[in-house]
Amino acid sequence: MKKTLRDVDVEGKKVLVRVDFNVPLDKNGRVADDTRIRGALPTIQYLLDHGARPILMSHLGRPRGQVVESLRMGPVGKRLQKLLSYPVVYVREIVGPGVKKAVEENPKAIILLENLRFHPGERENLPELSRQMARLADVYVNDAFGTSHRAHASTVGVAAYLPALMGLLMEKELETLGGLLEDPARPFVVLLGGNKVSDKLGVIDSFLEIADTILTGGGMCFTLIKSMGLEIGQSVVEEDQLRQITSVLKKARKKGVKIVVPSDFMIADRFDKKANHKLVPAESIPPDWMGLDVGPVTVEKYCTFIKEAKTVFWNGPMGVFEWHAFSKGTRGIANCIADTEAVSVVGGGDSDAALRQFDLEDKMDFVSTGGGAAMRLLEGKKLPAVEALMDG
Question: Is the pLDDT of residue 317 over 80?
Fold first, then answer.
């Protein structure tokens, strides 16, 4: 286990904290969804309560090493100040004299640095940038689980120059997701959706060792269905994954793990939210049509598994939930998970966005803040930013 910020006396110390404030902004440049900011509040509050001076750093969007005015961290600082009711000083720099001056002149404020990805050295994990970051503080804390699969200057590089600890959110993510792999209460039901089965193969392989049932939906299930010899029309398919899928299904049978595909679909005559659409059994998709959501028979079937489960893990929507006509499958599944008495863990893959759309986020036991990082962890792979932290 890695050391957490509870393992070190932080009183009077400047603490450089890597947070994940990569939040959506509305057309007026204001924070549209502050879920990720709220996720970091326990760590920030802990530091304030224990007499530390937090210096926060995060990326926002994809500026690709350039200064993009619409991606500055100012709006994030305003929302953070409102949430904490504590002064936040936003500095339009990442490192350098201006940052040091801001830290010295504002001992009773949280310092928020500029968008890390304005600096090309961030993604390149440039040692000089890491050293400059380290000079700002006495201790480094990583609370950005969502970026922990990236070896960047702010996640891996700086950890080489300061005592490097994990934050409270990072700790909770690792404990919750790691617990799924180690000792889930059974029956353990895994629900996988989203677009590409290639993104899920590693996770499926990992879950074949521990899950009792894997329920599939979204675009990814059509590659599975095609590998079974059924017609899928114009539905999304990854032809180059068919052989791999056949191997996965064979392994599942050997392990006694049920991999379940949908029984019916809401199909459309084109990929458009206003497309003609109708419900059909899974084996009756016409050649010119495509599946864009699972149907009510599938929802009912999947809910039977979910209701009997003791642990449920969900990653990826069942259909194009952003479009009303194709949202019922994802909504139905989300409601079913919300109503179950099982421990419910949701891990990225746009499932979190669906929960927010249906106002069900608070009904889940745990919603991970990291899509790619969560998947990598559940595949049993190492997370570079976690590996860089001090051992406990």
Answer: yes
In a domain, 385, yes or no: no
Q: Label residue 85 exposed, middle or buried (CB < 10 Å: 0-12, 13-18, 19+).
A: exposed
Please indicate whether residue 18 is annotated as part of the active site.
no
Q: What residues are paired with 235 via a beta bridge?
A: none
The answer to whether residue 391 is domain-embedded is: no
Whichever domain contains 114, its CATH number is 3.40.50.1260
Predicted pLDDT of residue 392: 86
Q: How far apart are CA 331 and CA 318, in angstroms?
A: 9
Q: Where are the beta strands (DSSP E) in 143-236?
A: 164-166, 188-192, 213-216
Integer Cα distance of 366 and 173 in angstroms: 9
User: What is the mean pLDDT of the segment spanning 230-238?
Assistant: 95
Catalytic residue among 131, 135, 196, 363: 196
Asked if residue 386 belongs to a domain, the reply is no
| Annotation marks residue 135 as catalytic | no
The answer to whether 385 and 148 are in contact (CB under 8 A) is yes
Measuring CA to CA, which residue among 178, 231, 198 is closest to residue 347?
178
Per the residue annotation, which of 2, 18, 36, 172 is the catalytic one?
36
The string of DSSP letters for 53-103 reads: EEEEE---S--TTS--GGG-SHHHHHHHHHHHTS-EEE-S-SSSHHHHHHH
| pLDDT value, residue 349 | 63
Tell me: do 135 and 257 sit in the same domain.
Answer: no
Which residue in 349, 370, 371, 376 is the catalytic one?
349
Range of the domain at 133: 5-169
What distance lies between CA 118 and its chain's CA centroid?
22
Dig out the tokens for 321 from the structure.
Answer: 């939930």
Alpha-carbon distance 153 to 128, whole Å?
A: 9
Is 359 a domain residue?
Answer: yes
Residues 6+ apart with CB under 8 A from 256: none
Q: Are 337 and 364 in contact (CB under 8 A)?
A: yes
Do 52 and 200 lie in one domain? The reply is: no
Q: Which of 119, 150, 169 is the last residue of a domain?
A: 169
> What pLDDT digit, counting tens, does each position of 7-48 carry?
999 999 999 999 999 999 999 999 999 999 999 999 999 999
User: Cα–Cα distance between 203 and 214 in angstroms, integer?
Assistant: 11
| Known active-site residue 196 | yes
349 is a catalytic site residue: yes
Q: For residues 135 and 6, what is the distance between their CA atoms, to the nearest angstrom? A: 22
